[in-house]
Every structure is written in structure tokens, then in C-alpha cells.
Amino acid sequence: xxxxxxxxxxxxxxxxxxxxxxxxxxxxxxxxxxxxxxxxxxxxxxxxxxxxxxxxxxxxxxxxxxxxxxxxxxxxxxxxxxxxxxxxxxxxxxxxxxxxxxxxxxxxxxxxxxxxxxxxxxxxxxxxxxxxxxxxxxxxxxxxxxx
Length: 147
Prior knowledge:
The structure is a single chain. Helix 6 packs antiparallel against helix 7. The chain is an all-alpha fold. It has helices spanning 5-18, 25-48, 65-78, 82-94, 99-104, 106-122, 131-143. It contains seven helices and no strands. The mean pLDDT is 80.
């Protein structure tokens, strides 16, 4: 037996308007509550998306505000541009190294440089020709020239 769209609509209309299965107040309450709960759960997970430890959505907010201020003041004292700040912060987050200590400790800075070189070696990129490595070495000369 084939049913047309008009017949299906007529069956549904008859069921809800003339049927003996009318919705009571409690049935309507539960029908509205269930999608509401699902929507709240969805919004909770949607708002939490991208805030995990491996999130790259907001790199600079991984630092505390005090650490960021300290990092920025050290950057200004060393004569680095804002591009250099962003570059170092992104590399530190990518290689899981504390950003504030990188500007203060030469061995930690060299560890970051070695980590970037190892990453390039692992991916088959020549570190001598890589722009990131050369820029990191240029920044190193700016920061640690007095040492």
C-alpha cells in the first residue's frame, strides 16, 4: 500500500486533533525538557571546545597575565619587536618550553633552537635554509649579545 504525502499529513493531523492519544501537561513538559537538556549539554561542550591543553586557538593566553607582562617587558628591554615576541611565544608553546625563561637563560634558548632543528631534521627540512631557524639565531644575537 502506497501512501501519498497528502495522506500522511492527513493521518498525522487526525491523530493529534481527533485521536484519543492527547498530550497532557506532563507529557508536553517532558517533550520540551528533553531537547532543552540536550541543547544545554551541546552548548557546554561547544563552549569548552578548543580550550584543552593542546589548543592552538589562543596561544598567548596560555601564559598568565603576570607572566605575559614580564615577558613583554623583557622583550622591550632586549629590543625585540612585537613580531619577534609572537614568534618566540608560538615556538615556545609548540615545543613546550617556558617563554619567560627563554629570554633570560641562554641554555634554554639554545634548547629551543636545538628542538626546532631536530623538528626540521625529523621532517626532512634543511635547518640551514629554514627561515625560522635563521630568524631564531638573529634574535639570539640581539638578546645575548652582551653575554
